[in-house]
């Protein structure tokens, strides 16, 4: 499938306070590459993304037991893309694929960060990644050890920037505490979930960090696992991830995120549909454009599983400017989940 | 009134990672000294506290427009207590009492911190306080300026330790970031609300800080404005603060904390009563002992308005050991508000 | 004279990245207090300013041989203004008033900074100033010595913030270099001339510093020595400063600033008059409001010599919002002196 | 062509405060190697320079789309010059040759600095360069990121010294601020245009930096694109660069530098001719000797396109001592563009 004629021009944003630019829409490998999707489909998704101007491809050592990195690396070689034109990321924390004993193949110890990076690069077939993330905080490893180890990766040329994923605000601030104290490089980006239904972390908890450390966000789950695409409008379709709940990983994932009032959420999402209709865009494009409206978001990582979905999602880039302050207010009113403004001096 | 014969011996705890010891129960000046309580009553409360072994008396420039500090200082002179035996605190942020123009008499600029300290010491009639708090975060002043200014107070001998009140965890971590970077002293204590009904901040948000910076807590509102004393069990008595809702300050205070399901809370509190009865202690003592059970709490600040209340509250010190793991679990079950444990490496 | 009924409410701005707030309009002592103006007139100007909400009063050890500081201090005592409500500044560099031998009574050596500060405080009758400026760069004293000496003033409580006046951008950056290297406080504000006719330094030379060091500006000469009040429209009036050219100081001052095409400037200023007329404001108010339109300006220092002039100038605060982008463009077109935008990456 | 018998002995100068010595005359690759000049001619120019004692050869990733580096590297191999005897430089900023997407192949992000260096070394066929320049300031990348990335190049052995080209004085000072703060290496040299007609940046703007950071200059355009060779004395010859104005790059270059009074400049240059004649040197030699007379100039980069020109230019080395104070004054008088001396303490 070729790109639709009306595909908007990709925009690029600086990754927080860094000098690196990432495409506003990026493609993620979770649950897909090397996992639920056959390789050929993954390749066609990556090609559609690249052809749309996407330069940032996101992965993790823990995705599909390491297979995700292998397939991603294969695609880069298959299409002979130039390394300089790409922003490749991976994440370290769950490295069971790298050994038989979980003891030192997980977490953020110096040993796992260095060994995990090496194993990831081998799977990717690359000399370095642009971005390396701490996939979760590790409360058993001293922060100083973790900060030093990520700087080791940068100093040895295996990564260019480091960041975090799903860390608490105070943990990011603490990482910078040690970075500053030791004259080292602090984490420049965080990868949280962010979408119309999950706003607290990005809009409230991290609020001071954008100013204090110049934090950039590469957000995942912009469509809330598809809920915001509107596809559950009338129930759960047979081929959706929810229907695959027998799968241990997804089941566990949903268990962790907790139960929520499913019906209420679907109802809210359905109320957003007329707004999308009025703008002449799809529900998923409204959801993505809304995420990109937040200036602290450097990139929204999509998990598209077909070229069509990639193009549809990239279409959201052209819809960002359609979201006027009035429409943003209307969305807030429907959702009722806008975090209160930060208390200032004279509040 | 003299101290009851069975008054337990006061215990002292280190203020976080510092070498300073504060009494487990301390007396606060909010809304009382210089405000809702006549001076003589304040004096007798302070004396009862001192006689019970309380060494820590808490105040703020913003309490009762500065009068709270004046009355507290008067009491110290009246009873000729030795300065060394006391741990005196005050807090800076709302310093309208110090000038006519609010512009530079509020917040945490270097100007207000230095001028506010000077005005507070004058009102207290003291050369220095032991603890100086930033009464709130000031998001308009750079953290570095604030950290430097509190260190200036310490360097000039006007305060011995500095801390925060109602700051976010990431703001405390950021203050330490600048303190470490500049070789300065970081905030050693935080003063949040903490009680059976308000647990999130102390048990979840600050969780990493106890280890990371050795944070100590001097918690206020251990009885949730009297709700946990059981006195609202059958409604709102005429002489309680709730009945004074015509008062603009209280009304405003409750408005800020938001509406909550009053009935549900009273019901929960009433369910705790049998536990107190079984232990042979008062409901307020159960609530205070529960607060002191948390090893991260250095001191619980009570707002007693009569010597009787002081003695009753101090009685809680003797009840801490009665709270067995089984009783603590039972309380958690009744309240259903225990924050989930922090995710560790293999969760 | 009492304040006119339609005097706008004063606005306050943070001084660069600091937590201190200064009034948008401030009163300066150059050539006036203790100099060309009798004391009573100075007092009435200061009172008119204070009554208008002005909180920032600017002075220098070199103004009127130290007399300017004396008269300013006298006014503060005369009106019993509260110290906390005021932002008082002075500047060190030309301290001939402090001794007989110019050798060590000028410049920015540690000796002169410490001795000059002491002499200024004595003349002002104050324990500290809020702002202390290096009145010029001193290319004979190492930057490190100067940075350390100004920090000494802050550490000893004689000043709260330090800054510069008429320094080059690279000198300010170099001061921060030593401040950072030594963990000291850098200069937070600069005092340049800034007005419709002198834009280069503020709009071009300092451009990066607003971001790099959070520089705030307290600008002098917002009316270009009265030229922008329109009073030279038809020639030089007998009572103006230009007519006093026999005076050595003024003559020297004009000599230093160089010759310029007097006629051309007057012509340009006269072209601005219709814009002021259309907005229903005075020419001087247009000029001041234009200065305040620049967000990097924390305060515009006026040199008014009568209460009427003070009120007229304060009136400019209410005119800032009247300067629409269209009007700003029109002004740029008339003057033709807008510095080109800073070259960015893809220019 | 062999070197003329009377060719003066090359002199070598320390590169600013560093311990590296560069030849007073050096050869640059802009617009020539790999571009307007055939390779064989480039080789013969480089050989003539090398034979004249030139040890410093200057290049950039942006010259002729990377071809300039390739041809320069080829020459080094062709003549089997010893690596230790050469000072090789290149510059990073415009790296479009390195990829298809301009987004991360330009500017001074960590990504481009590291990837650009790698691509340049590959084109040059070298393991390291002696000097690596930031070809322009990048106002979108934080200075700290840029300073760290250039240090990374030095730490990994890909470059020995780093510097800047056409940066503002305050940007160089800011780079040193971060270098000092982090204990890193600051930029030791700057590459500006400097010649009889363009003096402001070198003689005024950078004035403090020679002392503050020990800045060395490798100046380009010493003959002002040939204007100072006197070849436009009677108009624009057909084979000159000006005649090639149809070329988009040159046209764009002149557009950026702005229009100037061509006739006036030619007139001034013609007035300098008698001085050259009196000294028995060529006009171009006078211009080059004048540049070298400035002790802050470490090397003047010539853009000769024939061995004859190289020898002629090297001849200027022998003329430096002929420029007496009287002649220097006479030149200043003719040009009228000497920046005023820096204001010192008692000015």
Automatic annotation (TrEMBL), chains A, B, C, D:
Keywords: NADP, Oxidoreductase. GO terms for molecular function: oxidoreductase activity. Pfam families: Aldo_ket_red. InterPro entries: K_chnl_volt-dep_bsu_KCNAB-rel, NAD(P)_OxRdtase_dom_sf, NADP_OxRdtase_dom. Residues 25-334 form the NADP-dependent oxidoreductase domain. Belongs to the shaker potassium channel beta subunit family. This is Uu.00g101590.m01.CDS01. It comes from Anthostomella pinea.
